[in-house]
Amino acid sequence: MAAIVLFIIASDVKAQNITLQGIITDASDGQPVSGANVILLDDSDEQVRGSVTDQNGVFRIRNISPGEYQVRVSFVGYATLLEAIQLDGSETSVRFSRSLEIDSGTLGELVVSVPSQTGRIMGGHQRVSPADLTRAVTPAAGGDMATYLQVLPGVVAAGDRGGQLFVRGGTPSENMALIDGLLIYQPFHIVGFFSAFPEDLLANADFYAGGFSPKYNGRISSVLDVQMRDGNFNETEATASVSPFLAEIQMEGPIGEGRNASWLGSVRSSQIERTSELLLGEQQPLRFESQFLKFTQFSDDGTRCSAMAMRTYDRGKLDFDMGNSFKWTNFVIGGKCTHLSQDPDIFIDFNVGLSHLSNSLGGSDETNLTSGLTKFSTDLDMTQDVGSIRMNYGVYSHMKWISFDIEEIFQIPRAESEILLGAGGYAEATIPVGNRLRIRPGSAFSFYTSIYSPSIEPRLRLSWQPFGSDRHELNASVGMYRQAIAGITDLRDAGSAFIAWLPTPNEQRMEAVHSLIGWQQRFRNGLQISAEAYHKGLRNLPVTVWSTIAEFTTDIAFADGDVFGLDLRLEYGGQRFYGFLGYGLSWTEYTSAQDSFTEWFGSPVQSYHPAHDRRHQINSMASVDIGKYILGLSWQLGSGLPFTRQMGFDGILPFDDGLPNVRTRYGTPRVILDQPFEGRTPAYHRLDVSVKREFDLSFGTLDLQFGAINTYGRTNLFYYDVFTQRRIDQLPFAPYASVKMKL
User: Fold this and answer.
1) CA 283, 289, 292: angle at the middle one, nearest 5?
2) Domain that holds residue 159
């Protein structure tokens, strides 16, 4: 194999001549344009070579012979740029950075005509754009990542509150979320429609439901890598919006006279706690807020640097009448620089920052739990072409400070604080085999100065275009993933949002082996279909010890698991109509050995389906452009989730003062639980609708939106409290209106 690779490299080096590279941006605000086509044409207007810009707007075309060419840059919604260029061979690397002008003839159709990546999954990966978020009905003036992700097959939400997403059988703490390359621990707000990533702040995002590259390590389920956009480099803008769920103010603009620096600031605050009594007939004790600030500067040599800070705050009760109060705060601050060098042709991405999370549960006499986690990290990522092979590699280091007080509920040693020092790196090669096959072998490695032994995680991805076009593509991947920091939740309580972050209690990393294979096909009329089958083998998952006698305090046990699933998608995008239909089939099972199982069920090992095991899920959404109005629809159907049924009840009698009189004293009622998660809740389904209209004013634009959540008033169960025999429901029919003003 090594000989073949060396032969390919040597052959390509002999043939290579000139490299054309650069950054494509939006002329109106200076933002990088991701997904633009850059085509090199000869004097007969025949395509010689081509490339597509990445998330940073960067493209690179290699192995060009000297001569006269035309460079064509195009992207939907922008005027096509066509420019002659002379490559005389005096330079081996030529810079070609340009800005695209918005095509005024398509402005009214941008929302529904921008190509979406929703239906195109490539080895568990898809690119998410702001236009994708717009299509998912959200009870606010703009779309949000949280609402959009819940529409995708394979993603299960805990409900309309709690801020927890389960991806392909994984738990929320097994998901990685990055904001401009820095980790954010709990980015989804306690009101389930919202996250730290609203449409108006998003540049683009990469969502990996599984099989992700070795660039990402430290999580075993999924990755959400979000790039926040820069501020407007050309003019100052201000936007304000309000709805019964959310109010927001956003400002941005250039810095200085050179128009090579900008700033962007946003403040968001929930309104549901104030408006719910009038809107829904009862107060919803839920509150969240976020603040975001970003500065960006770029130079002509291809360097782009930014600094950003984000804070989020969530507080509320999931059981409005009797529950405890949950609270968590994220704080992320850091800087990022990217540089496209001339010689050698290396794209460099450097990150440094700090991520902090504080998490608590309290409000009752029995419960007062806290968990905190602070991470300081540096990351260096590089991309380099070596012949026809593209190399992606990097290194990182981090320091984690962990503190927790969970002794009241988990019988593990209480630790005031613990510091972990770690480092690692990764390497992945994209090797073309002919014109139709791409193989991506790679590996991640990491180590800590204490507790854990070094870890090597090999991964392999491939894509095959059997008919020589990306309209028909087969993707597959297999890889190992490990996680050292566990987020432990009391799985006995379906209404819990408290996550205790700590090193895995048995000093063994959690582990998952991902295997998936998928097919995607795109038709010329805008129709796309895709299917992906997957399996995850899970090991060393910390779970709560099971007991048929309901007890407040528990211990930690460990489980292995298997996840099987199939995601199917159908998507159509036209100029005035967009439609998406997805179906997810999933089967998740844990197997755990616990002493209490022997006492109650006759065997020390039990297998069960955890509380997030949703067997079937159908998601659909549509957007229709009717004249000056845009109608949005979103409908979801999910089969019931597992829960533990009660076996019966008894009473606890005190013996402190001798034998009690059982004729006059009945004791304290106690629930006797059945085998874990043997029951299933009723099916869940909900229809959300919206109607939008934009008005052009002399000083800006005004957007009005009217809509409703749970339009036909389905009584959906949030969870059932077996101790009090009470059901806690999700939102009833909830109408709303939003106003958004842009100056």
Assistant:
1) 165
2) 108-227
pLDDT band at 7 (very low <50, low <70, confident <90, very high): very low
User: In this structure, are strands 18-26 and 98-100 parallel, antiparallel, or unpaired?
Assistant: parallel
Q: Exposure string (b/e) for 156-190, b if CB count within 10 Å is 16 or more? A: bbbbbbbbbbbbbbbbbbbbbbbbbbbbbbbbbbb
Cα three-residue angle 413-374-447, rounded to 5 degrees: 75
Place of tokens 């990546």: 117
Q: CA nearest 567: which of 618, 513, 620, 527? A: 618
In a domain, 3, yes or no: no
Q: How far is CA 736 from CA 325, 474, 568, 689, 691, in A?
A: 26, 43, 32, 10, 11
Q: What does the block give as tokens for 654?
A: 């005190």
Q: What is the pLDDT of residue 587?
A: 97
Q: What is the pTM of this model?
A: 0.90
The CATH number of whichever domain residue 243 belongs to comes to 2.40.170.20
Asked if residue 277 belongs to a domain, the reply is: yes
Within 10 Å of residue 554's Cβ, how many Cβ atoms?
17
As a whole number, mean pLDDT of residues 72-76 equals 86
Clarify whether residues 664 and 594 are in a common domain: yes
- pLDDT the model gives residue 549: 62
What mean pLDDT do residues 290-318 have? 91
Give tens-digit pLDDT for 543-561.
887 776 655 556 788 999 9
Q: How far apart are CA 239 and CA 701, in angstroms?
A: 9
Can you list the alpha helix ranges (DSSP code H) found in 51-121?
110-113
Average pLDDT value for the chain: 86
542 and 574 housed in the same domain: yes
Across 666-680, average pLDDT: 78
Cβ(207)–Cβ(35) below 8 Å: no
How crowded is residue 100: how many other Cβ atoms within 10 Å of its Cβ?
21
Comparing C-alpha atoms, which of 221, 245, 244, 222 is closest to residue 161?
245
Amino acid at site 514: H
Q: What are phi and psi of 135, to 5 degrees?
A: -75, -25
- Tokens 């969970």 belong to 406
- Tallying the residues shown for the chain, one arrives at 743
Give strand pairing partners of 320: none
In 434-522, where do the E strands start and end?
437-448, 455-464, 472-483, 485-488, 500-503, 510-522
Cis status of the peptide bond prior to 505, with omega within 30 of 0: no
* Contact assessment for residue 645 and residue 722, using Cβ atoms and an 8 Å cutoff: yes
Choose between 346 and 258: higher pLDDT: 346
Co-location of 72 and 95 in the same domain: yes
Total number of domains in the chain: 3
pLDDT at position 362 is 79
DSSP string, 20-49: EEEEEEETTT--B-TT-EEEEE-TTS-EEE
157 and 150 in contact (C-beta within 8 Å)?
Answer: yes
Range 730-739 average pLDDT: 93
- 471 in the same domain as 397: yes
Residue 337 in contact with residue 303, Cβ under 8 Å? yes
Q: Distance (Å, rounded) from C-alpha 415 to C-alpha 52?
A: 50
Please provide the distance, in angstroms rounded to a whole number, between the alpha carbons at the two ends of the chain.
59
Tokens of 653: 């009698």
Contacts of 222 (CB under 8 A, 6+ apart): 167, 168, 170, 174, 175, 176, 207, 208, 209, 210, 212
- Nearby residues of 527 by Cβ (< 8 Å), 6 or more positions away: 570, 571, 572
**145 and 26 belong to one structural domain:** no
Specify whether 81 is located in the same domain as 132: no
Using only C-alpha atoms, what is the Rg of the chain? 27
Residues 93 and 234 in one domain: no
Q: What is the pLDDT of residue 116?
A: 44
At residue 409, the pLDDT reads 56
Looking at the structure, tell me whether residues 287 and 413 fall in a common domain.
Answer: yes
Task: Name 636's bridge partners.
Answer: 619, 686
Within a domain: residue 571? yes
Neighbours of 467 (CB within 10 A): 10
